[in-house]
Amino acid sequence: MEQVELSSGSILNRPNETINEVYFPLTCLISVTITMMDGMTVEAGVVGSREMVGINAFMGGRETTQTEYIVQVPGKAMKMKADLLLSEFDTNKSLRDVMLKYTQAYMAQISQNVACNRLHTIEQRMARWLLESSDRLASDELFLSHEFLSNMLGVRRSGVTETAQRLQEKGLIQCSRKKIKIIAPQSLEETSCECYGVIKDEYDRLLRFKLER
């Protein structure tokens, strides 16, 4: 494994590309996005310090499908050749057990995202997204633009700006240019939908560790 620095906006894999390397984020955050024919982009999942990029490498297919992996918060990650991971997956039972449990947790995240994007308000979804990002980065300061957030949430930029303003007026976050700071994480969790707690509990159950605020 090799430690690398990933810069904001870097694309690790595009649709239909062969996955030659996998990444285990340490201090960065990576979005799994889907772009529609009209150019609209929405986030399908997020990958941080308790996840990896490139599960296709050991799931029987080496190509991505419609998904794209974009670095949204720069930082460090561990990079590994996909062939080496597959070899270890085939021969190392302990590693295989962990990777399969992670895959189950990741599938739960994707499934919950579908329901969340369909049923919950922008305010609930933004609160959840900020909490999940904060957990994975182990930081209450998130360096993100409203334009990027609008792409991740699949809403207009004006909707993100208005929602962020409401959360700031409630004293939950503090916004500045390309930075959002979480001021009251417990209150932000109460504002979020149940999806945040559901996914967090599933990760804790399957991977047997808890993230403390």
Automatic annotation (TrEMBL):
Gene3D superfamilies per the UniProt record, alphabetical: Jelly Rolls
Keywords assigned: DNA-binding, Transcription, Transcription regulation
Domain HTH crp-type: 124-190
Keyword Nucleotide-binding attached: no
InterPro entries, per the entry: cNMP-bd_dom_sf (IPR018490), Env_Response_Regulators (IPR050397), HTH_CRP (IPR012318), RmlC-like_jellyroll (IPR014710), WH_DNA-bd_sf (IPR036390)
Domain of life the protein comes from: Bacteria
Record carries keyword Transport: no
Protein name according to UniProt: Crp/Fnr family transcriptional regulator
Organism: Nostoc linckia FACHB-391
Organism phylogeny: Bacteria, Bacillati, Cyanobacteriota, Cyanophyceae, Nostocales
